[in-house]
Give the backbone structure.
Amino acid sequence: MKKLKALSLLLALTLFLAGCGSSNSEVEKDTASSGGTKTIKFMHLWPEGTNAAQNKILNEIIDDFERENPGIKIEQEILANEQYKDKIKVLSASNQLPDVGMAWPGGWLQPYVQGNKIASFDDVIDSDYRSKFVDGTIEVFEVDGKTYGLPTDLNIAIVYYNKQIFEQNGLEVPTTYDEFLNVIQTLTNNGITPIALGNQERWTGSLWYMYLADRIGGNETIVNAVNRKQSFEDPTLIQAAEEIQKLVDLGAFQKGYNGATNSEAESLFTSGQAAMYLTGTWALPSFTQGENFTQEFKDSVDYFKFPTVAGGKGNINSFVGGNGGLFVAENSDVKEEAKRFVKYFTEKFGERALGEAGIIPSYKLNADDYDLPELYLKVLKDLNDASNITLFADNIMTPGPAQVHLDMIQALFGKEATPEEFVKAHEEALAKEAGE
Amino acid sequence: MNKVMSNKWMITLYILPALLLLLILIYIPLVLSAYYGLMEWDGIGNMKFIGVGNFITAIQDMKFWSSVYHSFLLALFSALSLLAYLGISLILASNIKGSDILRKIYLIPMLLSSVAIAQLWIKVYNPTNGLLNSFLMAIGIDNPPAWLAEPSIVLYAIFIPILWQYAGFYILIYYAALKNIPESLVEAARIDGASPWQVAFKIKLPLIKGVFKVTIVLAIVGSLKYFDLIYVMTGGGPNGASEVMASYMYKVAFRSYDFGYGSAIGFLLLVITLIVTFIVRKLTVSDEKELQY
């Protein structure tokens, strides 16, 4: 039965993805004989082509680990993001998860923990290990007091802006929301698109809502509403939705934002056709060093923290963000070795990611030790001062309500749903999920 | 040879590989998806039997019905577009100058992968820099719509590349069928004084009627289970405005982690497609002995 289940899932998947072009998974097979060696299968998302720096560090850490642990081989399989998530799901249904794979906290993790598919790390991590990581980045992988993932990279969302456009229009960086609205008004009056938004992908618009909810209701409100400690139909959450529609009315976003992909929005911003762009710090490596962008753009890109709303409870040093991590499969034949590898990998990755790949790790770092572009130093300093990190919406919610949230985001931005309908749909989905 | 073919064991042996593949790849998953449709299952943990609960949810789910409606609209447009393809093939098959090169031009979209077509049309439809809106603004239309963002337009905007994608396929089928008509028949009609119109409507079209019926079924069934361009270009959005049955099923199963409900939708998709195929067959049936499909 298990086999059949897996087979039919796999079929459903292959039938559906067959039309979506050739898969860009690459399997790097170890040619070494398996006599006496243990093999850890490691599935990840950092191919050499698009994530060269990550890929290089990863391979070096794996080489080091194999050298220090004779008899253990790491076998890699590399996939793209959505394909990875789909494949992991199919594999888990047949208990064939890779020994080690990439994990996301919260809603993504929960079904796997409840299905008893992934192992806890409590026996391998100690306070010494914990102290090396930024507060909260390990805790997000906890379910019922046990830790099911160890952190790798850390990202926060920030508002990137084009210094050149701001100067040309005599604008200052806004610190309050009123100033921010003023910036938008000035830009639209001058015929410039204020904000690039690719809301076809929905998580992009969700960032705007999450920040407004945080600034108006404080960082607790939305998290409590999701965790059913309070209703989602909170006045501050309604107000945040109203503000979104005010931005829409002001013409803050480029034409057709609800049908645009994130990469379209990014290219609007990077080609100087839009003044601002809210996205994660994962864009930093390409915005500062990427070969795809002009020097003119790299010189004019900067960022500011999401402004505070007058009368709101939110703090300007609170960020929306999240971190990735690694899991170990519960039924792995090499569970102990795999856990040791994950612990080793996360520490080494933490030490090297920033200096060598420009990725901000969940690892505590001293910014002065690095020779980095100014933008990085600013982000690292802000991260040190961060009062709170609110997880991305699709990380705090379980998959069902997260989809409702993402759909409602599109409806809210498209003015197909009123702010009241927006919160009501959330409330109903969350209540249903909690079995109320 | 006749001896071999009359041996039951040999017949079994010959059809066995194909039969096994069909069973394993099509029929078993099909039965299983009906079975999963009766379960509450996130695709990871344990299954719980809930009877027809998922099917009741589907019947009450407005999003599901709007995706059904969109699929049927697509089927309707695909079927209507066949008439245009038929017209084009009639012209191509009448030995006009350059029909060879034109035929190849029509076939090109079929050679592209769906993702490439999607990327191409995303760029065409780009509201500010896209080919279409640049053209519209150049001829003096001030505020052309954002094709993929407007809930009332997006579905029709996405139909165009879908129809374009399959145009070459149907034109090729019709072209081949028309070329198969014996030249002597056409010749005889001409000698009897038939006009080109009469040749087309009285001689050629009746002779390829069977092929036309096949293509109607192909177009309708293909539309009802259509997925690729919609998945890549809009993901069913904005807010479900371009969702079709297959993309909704994918979203429910793989994004909302509701495999039970996703399987139920998949099963309903199958039932709906079967019913429609049956109706189309009934409507187009005639007394003549004809191509079976």
